[in-house]
Amino acid sequence: MRKEKVGFFAHSTLILQVSGHFAFETAGQSISMSAGEMLLVRKNQLGEITKTPLEGENYETIVIVLQEDLLRKIALEEQIAIREKYTGPSNLLIPGNDFLRGYFQSVIPYVRSTEEKIVTALGMLKVKEGVQLLLRAQPGLKEFLFDFSESYKIDLEKFMLSNFHFNVPVERFAQLTGRSLAGFKRDFQKIFGMSPRQWLQEKRLTEARHLIEKKNKKPSAIYLDLGFESLSHFSHSFKKKFGKAPTEWL
Predict the structure, then answer these.
(1) How far is CA 135 from the centre of its chain?
(2) Rounded distance, CA 141 to CA 123, Å?
(3) What residues contact residue 238 under an 8 Å CB cut-off, 6+ apart?
(4) What is d(CA 247, CA 242) in angstroms, rounded to the nearest whole number?
(5) Phi, psi of 91 (to 5 degrees)
(6) What is the reported pLDDT for 197?
(7) 156: phi then psi, degrees, rounded to nearest 5
(8) Nearest-angstrom CA–CA distance, 161 and 47
(9) Full-prediction pTM beyond 0.85?
C-alpha cells in the first residue's frame, strides 16, 4: 500500500484502474474503485490518495491528464459552447460500456510497452478519443470538461476549515480559492485575524491536542494527517505551544 497525503490535480484527469484498489478522499468526497473502473477527477483539487495492490497481483493505474489547452482545442473543433458553470460533484465514477471498455484495453499496451514509447501525436489522438467517448457515454459531462471560467473567489473560511490539514504551500491555497497571493493574505487576515502560516500552525496543533486528549490518538498516528512533515517537528511545535510534549497528554 502507498498513501499520498497530498495529491493535487491541476487538470481534469481520467484515471483507469487496471489492477488493485484506488481511493481518493477530499474534504467533500470519498471515492474508490477497483480493476476495470474509471474515475473522472475535476481540476484544482487537493486530496489523499491510497493505492493498494491486491494479493497475487501488482498495482496498476493509467492516468490521462486532460490539459486545458487540449480541451479548448476540442471545444473549438467540435463547436462546443458552455453557458453555465459546472456545479456538480468534483469526482465522478464513469459507468463502463462497450466503447469505453474497448478504449481502456487499447491504451494498456502503450503504457506497458518498454520498447516503444507512445509518440506525442498518437498520444493526443488517444486523449481526444477518450474525451469523445466520455461525451458519447454521458453528454452532460460537457460542463465538467469544458468549463473554462476563471477561478472565482470561493468561501475562504469554509475552504480553509475543511482543508487546513493538507501540507501544501500558502500559494497553493491562494490558487485554489481563486485569489492572488496578496489577495489571499489580505482576505485571510480580515477573516481569521492572523497570517495564513500562523493560523495553519495554530489550527493543526489545536486539532492535534483534541485528538490526543479526547480521542486517545497517538502522536505518531496523527502528525502526517495534520500536515506535519515529521514527528519531531510536530512534537517540538506541540511542546512550544502547550508546554508539554504530545506524549505527556496521553
Answers:
(1) 22
(2) 22
(3) 205, 208, 209, 219, 245, 246
(4) 12
(5) -135, 130
(6) 94
(7) -65, -45
(8) 14
(9) no
Can you give the pLDDT of all 250 residues of the chain as single tens digits?
A: 888 878 889 899 999 999 999 999 998 899 999 999 999 999 988 999 999 999 989 899 999 999 988 898 888 788 888 878 888 999 999 998 899 989 988 888 877 776 656 666 777 888 899 999 999 999 989 999 998 876 567 789 988 998 898 888 899 888 888 888 999 999 999 999 999 999 999 999 999 999 999 889 999 999 988 888 899 999 999 999 999 999 888 7
Helix (DSSP H) and strand (DSSP E) numbers for the chain: 10, 8
* Lookup result for grid cell 500559494: 171
Nearest to 246 by CA among 216, 201, 224, 202: 216
Q: Which three cell numbers stand for residue 174?
A: 491562494
Instruction: Tell me how far apart the alpha carbons of residues 247 and 220 are, in angstroms, rounded to a whole number.
Output: 9
Place of cell 493505492: 51
Q: Are 198 and 187 in contact (CB under 8 A)?
A: no
pLDDT score, position 117: 61
* CA 16, 31, 173, 196 torsion-angle sign: negative
Q: How far is CA 195 from the centre of its chain?
A: 25
How far apart CA 30 and CA 25 sit, in angstroms, is: 4
227 vs 190: CA distance, rounded Å: 24
Scanning the structure block, which residue is given the C-alpha cell 489577495?
183
Specify which residues 235 forms β-bridges with: none
Report the side by side order of strands in the sheet with 45-52: 2-9, 45-52, 21-25, 30-33
